[in-house]
Design goal:
Elements (H helix, E strand, L loop, with lengths): L1 H9 L12 E4 L6 E5 L4 H18 L4 H17 L1 H12 L3 H21 L7 E2 L6 E9 L2 E5 L7 H13 L2 E5 L5 H18 L7 E3 L4 H9 L3 E7 L2 H13 L3 E5 L4 E5 L5 H13 L9 E7 L3 H13 L19 H16 L3 E3 L3 E2 L9 E2 L2 E4 L5 H4 L6 E7 L2 H9 L3 E2 L1 E5 L3 H8 L8 E4 L11 E2 L2 E2 L6 E2 L8 E9 L16
Parallel strand pairs: 5-6, 5-8, 6-7, 8-9, 10-11, 10-18, 11-16, 15-16, 18-19
Antiparallel strand pairs: 1-2, 3-4, 4-23, 12-15, 13-14, 17-21, 20-22
Helix pairs in contact: 1-4, 2-8, 3-5, 3-6, 3-7, 4-5, 4-7, 5-6, 10-11
Length: 501
């Protein structure tokens, strides 16, 4: 615990915020308590929203390239502290060291993207049907953005939202998962360093509020919060979306993913095995883009299943801080119990399970390490259609490509998808309007590992939101259509005649 506290202090976190609070934080590595974090009361959260709105009214008037300078400074702080922050991610979320470092690199990358974006918040010039007139679109800051994040990517998702929101002229309030508040404290301390170097940003431009469900509900229900960007379960999204819509606010929802890989009979199986295993067991199956379903042509189904079983037997499972580990722990006992329930249901639905049992419990009695599970299923049953946030990979076979595509699309979620094939027609069809119905559709690469440059998000019960690259910035701004009359006349649209015309 002392080493964690030293790490937090080195990142600029005030010890008073994590020593004597009411929120007990445990590391999934060994289940040991590592901090007692101070939570904000309902009144403090509401006051934070008011302060954020006041900051927004000032920040929106700062030129966008100047706002980009703040994000450049944040990127420099992240570069300088990548190793320390990445290690803290591993300790608190259970990710292996490479994944913890990789998450911080994603933060650095989005900062670079947002700095360039600060000079590219372009609108359109539009042809007017009236002589002597010009039409155009302009984009303006939206307001206060509430960011609610999940434990599995405790800092990267915040950065995707915040880097864009601050460049767009918004203020931000961050409610992290109650399972991973320490990484939030550390990240926000780095942002505060950047703000100090920036010099003249309004006070309370970015704030951190830590608490339970009620804390998030305040952000969801407060009309001062113009946009709520929430990452979590579909169940959570069903509650957040209607509440924000009822007050005519905006939502970016990043919810469930039940991601499939189709493996064609023409696929390069060496590539496919590599992509499948990484997608299925990385972060112990606790990514929203984890591979959960495998749809394999019947002619190669047995061979591929055997190759996967062989690969799974060699997976190094253990302490994520130790070199060579590829699979760390589940976040907690509840995640383990959910996994076991799903495997039991799979057996009841005629599935054949390989793996899935708890391991290392003698070394880590208060932590939950598991062997990733392979489940050969006769059909896409109810349990397969449900997302279980754990390393379970369901394997099914198909005869016709059309059947494989139907299986992939016939689940409620629509985040990420992939196909391994060397058949050009299959690849193109998969990416067409009649192909994958997901927000992410890949060819000869797995379902995880999205890059900063592309907008991230999905369809159906995934929520429809988009974060990070491309034109996702438009979600954090409001659009105005402007018409300028530079003539001495006032012609009306559509040739309407009025009065003495």
């Amino acid at each position: 615990m002392s080493s964690v506290q030293e790490l937090l202090v080195s990142l600029g976190v005030n010890p008073a915020s994590f020593q004597n609070g009411s929120l007990k934080v445990h590391s999934p590595i060994d289940g040991a308590p590592i901090a007692n974090v101070v939570e904000q009361s309902s009144a403090e959260v509401t006051a934070a929203v008011e302060r954020a709105h006041a900051a927004f009214t000032q920040w929106r008037q700062v030129p966008a390239p100047r706002r980009g300078e703040l994000i450049r400074l944040l990127g420099e702080e992240l570069r300088a502290n990548k190793e320390a922050l990445g290690r803290l991610v591993s300790i608190e979320a259970g990710k292996i060291i490479a994944e913890g470092q990789g998450e911080v690199q994603e933060m650095i990358d989005i900062c670079d993207f947002a700095v360039g974006l600060s000079r590219q918040l372009y609108g359109l010039t539009i042809a007017s049907e009236r002589p002597g007139h010009r039409m155009m679109e302009t984009w303006h800051p939206l307001g206060v953005v509430g960011v609610i994040t999940a434990f599995n990517f405790p800092v990267a998702v915040w950065s995707w939202n915040t880097a864009l929101a601050l460049v767009c002229g918004d203020a931000v309030i961050w409610k992290p998962s109650e399972k991973t508040p320490l990484t939030a404290l550390a990240t926000h301390a780095l942002l505060e360093r950047a703000l100090k170097k920036f010099g003249d940003a309004p006070e309370h431009l970015s704030q951190l509020v830590i608490g339970q469900r009620e804390t998030g509900e305040i952000l969801v229900n407060n009309p001062r919060v113009a946009l709520v960007s929430a990452t979590g379960s579909t169940r959570m999204g069903r509650e957040v979306g209607p509440k924000v819509a009822a007050r005519f606010g905006r939502c970016i929802l990043e919810l469930g993913g039940n991601n499939a890989i189709i493996v064609s009979e023409t696929a390069d199986l060496d590539m496919a095995v590599r992509g499948i295993v990484f997608g299925a067991v990385g972060t112990a199956g606790q990514r929203c883009t984890s591979t959960r379903r495998l749809i394999v042509h019947s002619s190669i189904a047995h061979e591929l299943a055997e190759r996967l079983k062989k690969a799974y037997r060699t997976l190094p499972i253990g302490n994520p801080l130790e070199a060579g580990t590829l699979v760390g722990p589940l976040i907690d006992k509840a995640a383990f119990d959910t996994m076991q329930t799903a495997l039991q249901k799979a057996v009841e639905q005629k599935g054949i399970v390989t793996g899935g049992q708890r391991v290392l419990h003698d070394r880590f009695p208060d932590a939950y390490y598991v062997e990733p599970a392979l489940v050969e299923m006769p059909a896409q049953t109810e349990v397969v259609r449900h997302e279980t946030f754990a390393p379970i990979l369901y394997i099914m076979s198909y005869e016709r490509f059309e059947d494989a595509l139907a299986l992939q699309n016939e689940v409620p979620q629509g985040l990420s998808s992939a196909i391994f094939t060397t058949n050009l027609l299959e690849a193109e069809y998969f990416m067409s309007a009649a192909g994958s119905d997901c927000g992410i559709a890949n060819v000869n690469i797995g379902t995880s590992g999205a890059e900063i440059g592309g907008a991230f998000g999905g369809e159906k019960e995934t929520g429809g939101g988009r974060e990070s690259g491309s034109d996702a910035w438009k979600g954090y701004m409001r659009r105005a259509t402007n018409t300028i009359n530079y003539s001495r006349e006032l012609p009306l649209a559509q040739g309407v005649k009025f009065g003495d015309d």
